Each structure stands twice: as structure tokens, then as C-alpha cells.
């Protein structure tokens, strides 16, 4: 098993890609796939990815407006 990396834009992009491929994929399934690739992910990242894709209500997306998440949002929009 590869050593795990710290969570970052790559991990969030991985979750987004998994959700784009299958909008019903569970956190557990994404976590298992991420573990195999050596990516560290957490439930909050799964929720943020769903919000970025419009899979959650507006109240869940308000936290994504912070500057901390701007880089992740911009990276995802470029893809």
C-alpha cells in the first residue's frame, strides 16, 4: 500500500471525479479507493465535493465561499 499523503487539492479532485462518475457512490467506497491510491480523505471533504457539484443544498455550500477553499474550487473549475 502506498504511503498516505496529507489531504489537499488532489484528494478533493479525486472525490469529485468519483462523484462525477457515479453520483451515488458512498463515502466508504471513495475512502477505500483513495486508500489504495495513498490519498487521505475525510467525510468533510466528501461533503464539500458534493456541495461543489451541487449535490447539497445552498446552506452547505456557504462554507465553500471562504478563501481557504478558493484554491480547491478554482482547481476543480479548470478541469
List the helices and strands and how they pair.
Elements: H1 9-21, H2 27-37, H3 43-52, H4 58-61, H5 70-78
Labels describing this entry:
5 helices, 59% helix, mainly alpha, 79 residues
Description:
The protein has 5 helices and no strands. It has helices at residues 9-21, 27-37, 43-52, 58-61, 70-78. The N and C termini lie far apart (28 Å). Mean pLDDT is 78; it is low at 57-62.
Low-confidence stretches: 57-62
Strand composition percent: under 5%
Main sheet makeup: none
The total beta strand count reads: 0
What's the helix count?
Answer: 5
Helix/strand order: HHHHH
Radius of gyration: 12 Å
The gist of it:
With 79 residues, the protein is mainly alpha-helical.
Amino acid at each position: 500500500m502506498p504511503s498516505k499523503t496529507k489531504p489537499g487539492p488532489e484528494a478533493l479532485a479525486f472525490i469529485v471525479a468519483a462523484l462525477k462518475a457515479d453520483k451515488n457512490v458512498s463515502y466508504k467506497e471513495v475512502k477505500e479507493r483513495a486508500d489504495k491510491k495513498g490519498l487521505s480523505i475525510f467525510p468533510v471533504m466528501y461533503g464539500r465535493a458534493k456541495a461543489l457539484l451541487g449535490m447539497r443544498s445552498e446552506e452547505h455550500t456557504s462554507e465553500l465561499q471562504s478563501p481557504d477553499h478558493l484554491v480547491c474550487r478554482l482547481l476543480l473549475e479548470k478541469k
